[in-house]
Amino acid sequence: MNTLVTGRRLARELGEWRSTGPAYRALADRIRVLLMDGRLASGTRIPAERELSGALGLSRTTVAAAYSKLRDDGYLASVRGSGSTLVLPGLERGDHAPGSGLPLDFTKAVTLAYPGVAAAYAAAIEQLPAYLAHDGFDMVGMPDLREAIAQSYRNRGLPTSAEQIMVTTGAQHALNLVTRSLYSPGERVLVEQPTYPHALDTFASVGARMLSFPVSQDGGWDLSEAQLQLRRAAPSMAFLMPDFHNPTGTSMTIPEREFLTAAATREGTVLIADETTALLDIDRGALPPLACFSPGVITLGSLGKIAWGGLRIGWIRASRDVLARILRNRPAQDLGTPLLEQLAATSLVRELPVLAASRSRDLKLRRDMLVQLLGEQLPEWDVAVPDGGLSLWINTGTMSTSALALAARSEGLGLVPGPRFGLDGAFERFLRLPFGHDVEQLRDAVKVLGRISSRVGPDPLRMPLQAVI
Ligand SMILES: Cc1ncc(COP(=O)(O)O)c(C=O)c1O
Question: With CB atoms counted within 10 Å of each terminal CB, which end of the chain scores lower, N or C?
Fold first, then answer.
């Protein structure tokens, strides 16, 4: 059975969908953006024309014309008697990610592989024969790798033993394992606004009710709103990115860390600290991991950004009890982490300080270049300079970034519009622009943005900012 999006929910997700052209085309375009950037999944059943026209206060003819355009363009399939379903063309070919196949894919905040990755694999191949006499199923992680990860926490001032580490196939997998092991139906989850989109997807996939509190580049974490939500709704978990938060690049101050861990402990909320981006320090300096402030914090880590996404190695740091619970649940998700990757990861984790220093130099160059290019081409955009992480979180002021993403796509540039990072269509005027790309690609992407921004133009409705920050 396909999921059904109600008229009210679709109206909320659509946000400020109107533009200068005919209403039916603007509506069809916005639904297409929601489908492309993952806010609506392929296979979702959309509301009947009458229901959506009621929710949007539009004539039924306009909605019918929008649906018909989507159908003609291959984005909607209708089966008599069972409504209309969204379809992402090309899904069968596996190129369904919003930017995949485009020459300039800026949909992912990624880095090029650390130069030592190939050597780490070569060394791993040499070690592999020693493991071939075993069955090869590894549900918790190889002892050497767990110890190397534990050592990396000790180096950051957080006492950790290898028994507190479970190796996973990336941080996204780690988050899924934690969520599916600890979440029970009916519970609430607190998230930052904006946040990492696939965390929202994970919590949505277990049917969690999500609450949010704001994080911004200039105001940091809104502690009074966080406290209010924790007290009022007693969420069972809260998902946080304390270091180089994705997408804003902001880091929690020590008082913010102290406050949030104390407030969560008081209300019995488990904090999940996603540290996937935590080692991407450009010019900030070290800060103690969130788990230094409370033993109950569950930390997620990954080599995806610091070494290479293709390694697919991440981990969970938690108490032995929590890890035992996750281990009991793990076979329903997967049967362990590949050994070759773990062998390669072990040498990379041992070299983390070297990796981090090399990344830092490299990211500084790219960040500064992107900021400079944007200053030249799009001076009206408010570009705050983060001191780490992988992307700029830009306030365009008046532009609909959903419309911008649509126009960019036709020029070969894949972008993720701001609302993908928020709940309920917030952040329409914001754009996350990654800077870990090749220098030529940064130049080309800004050229495209400069070219299309005048075409997309400011939002004709000039509505006040709807973002929470
Ligand atoms: C905050 C955050 N968490 C998790 C992930 C996923 O990490 P991995 O590639 O290790 O699964 C990402 C990747 O973009 C991320 O930015």
Answer: N
